[in-house]
Specification:
Layout (H helix, E strand, L loop, with lengths): L3 E7 L4 H15 L4 H21 L8 E8 L3 E8 L26 H9 L2 E7 L2 E9 L4
Antiparallel strand pairs: 1-2, 2-3, 3-5, 4-5
Length: 140
Amino acid sequence: MKTAIEITIKNRIPEIEHVCDAVAEFSRKHNVADKIIFTLHLAIDEILTNIISYGYSDPNEHIINICYSLQKDYLQLKIIDDSNPYDPAAAPEPDVEASLEDRKIGGLGIYLIKNMMDDIKYSSESGKNTLVLTKKCDYT
């Protein structure tokens, strides 16, 4: 049975659901727990929304590649795009103790991803950003 899928989308918000659906379907075929699938859905939605909404300096069509793989005891989601470089792993932590009135807008989604995933690695080379999210889990 295949242990990885590759998905290519354009930088359009409606395409995010296609990625989430493909990852969920593939995960269910490999008996990944619904709780982990939900975590992946949140991470995919947040990361791709940020890339599409804030990453590009032009209105042109861009391609985003997603590779989702199942390893022995972890899942890995790799996102490759040509947006402006941005390392979400280095994003400042929001003040989650501040009142809603005093809290800055933004940053909470990245904060959640950092706390839901076990590892986040980012690199930028030759105009391409690569973000690798890893989640430890058991599946069959």
